[in-house]
Automatic annotation (TrEMBL):
Any GO molecular function: hydrolase activity
Coiled coil: none
Cross-referenced InterPro entries: Cell_wall_hydrolase_SleB (IPR011105), SleB_dom1 (IPR042047)
Name this protein carries in UniProt: Cell wall hydrolase SleB domain-containing protein
TM segment ranges: 12-32
Domain Cell wall hydrolase SleB: from-to ranges: 69-166
Length: 243
C-alpha cells in the first residue's frame, strides 16, 4: 500500500456512508492485449456503451441537475462515468444509472421535454468521447447543494448545477487511489478505451482532434449557493490499499 506524501492529514475515526452494490465485471487479465490505445493493467472491463446507455446517461444528467446548466450536467455525467470505472458498481451505464436509491426516482421512465433533448444528448456524447468535469475529478458521489450531513468522511470537490460533489475518505482520512478509466473488449478481442469504441456514435464536431466546447467555470455556482469548498486536500493513496 503506497501513499502520496505531498500533503499530510491527521488520523481520525470516520463514519462510513452507505456503499453501493458490487458489479459483475472484472479487471484485465494478466498479459492482456494492451496494444490499442492507453489501457491500464487493472482497468475494469465493461460492456460497450450502446444508444440505450447514451439515453440512460442523458437522463441521469437531466433529472439530477439544473437542466439549463450544461456544466452541471457534465458534472453529474462525470460521476456516472466514474462509477462505470469502479469495480464497486455495475458494468454498463444503464445498470449504473438504474441502481436502486442512487439516482432520482423515475430517472429511466419519466418523460424528457423535446426542447431539452439536443442539449442533454450533446453533453452525453461529450462524456462518451472522453470529456470529464475537471473539478469533480474521480468523485463518485453528490447531493443537492445546501444540504448538510453529520458524516466526517465527505471531502467536497465541486459545486455545479445545483449539486455538491464529494469523495469519501477512509478511516485514516485518506482519499482513495484514482481509478483507471474502464475499457471495452472489441469483437477481435482487443481491449480499448470506451471513447475509442464509441466515437462512431458521437457527432462529427466531437471527433478526435476537433476542439470541444469549453465548459464554464463553477465559480458562478459557488457564489449563487453561498457555499465554498474546503481548503486543502487530504492525502490520496497512490494505489489501492491491500484488502
Amino acid at each position: 500500500m503506497h501513499r502520496n506524501q505531498s500533503s499530510q492529514i491527521g488520523s481520525f475515526l470516520l463514519v462510513s456512508l452507505i456503499g453501493s452494490g458490487l458489479g459483475g465485471c472484472g479487471v484485465l487479465p494478466a498479459g492482456g492485449d494492451m496494444t490499442t490505445g492507453s489501457v491500464a493493467q487493472n482497468a475494469k472491463v465493461v460492456q460497450t456503451p450502446t444508444r440505450a446507455d447514451r439515453e440512460c446517461l442523458a437522463r441521469a444528467m437531466y433529472f439530477e441537475s439544473n437542466r439549463t446548466d450544461e456544466e452541471g450536467m457534465l458534472a453529474v455525467g462525470t460521476v456516472v462515468m466514474n462509477r462505470l470505472d469502479s469495480p464497486k458498481y455495475p458494468g454498463s451505464v444503464c445498470e449504473v444509472v438504474g441502481q436502486k436509491r442512487q439516482f432520482a426516482n423515475g430517472v429511466l421512465s419519466k418523460p424528457v421535454r423535446d426542447q431539452d433533448r439536443a442539449r442533454i444528448e450533446k453533453v452525453a456524447d461529450l462524456l462518451l468521447a472522453g470529456e470529464r468535469h475537471k473539478e469533480v475529478g474521480p468523485a463518485l458521489h453528490f447531493h443537492t447543494a445546501g444540504y448538510t450531513f453529520p458524516y466526517t468522511n465527505m471531502h467536497y470537490v465541486a459545486l455545479a448545477g445545483g449539486n455538491q460533489f464529494y469523495e469519501k475518505t477512509d478511516r485514516e482520512g485518506y482519499l482513495p487511489a484514482v481509478l483507471p478509466h474502464a475499457v471495452v473488449q472489441t469483437a477481435s478481442g482487443k481491449l480499448v478505451p470506451i471513447q475509442m469504441a464509441t466515437l462512431a456514435d458521437a457527432p462529427d464536431s466531437f471527433a478526435t482532434g476537433t476542439p470541444r466546447p469549453r465548459m464554464p467555470s463553477i465559480q458562478a455556482t459557488q457564489v449563487a449557493y453561498g457555499l465554498s469548498l474546503p481548503q486543502g486536500v487530504p492525502t490520496r493513496y497512490s494505489s489501492a490499499p491491500a484488502q
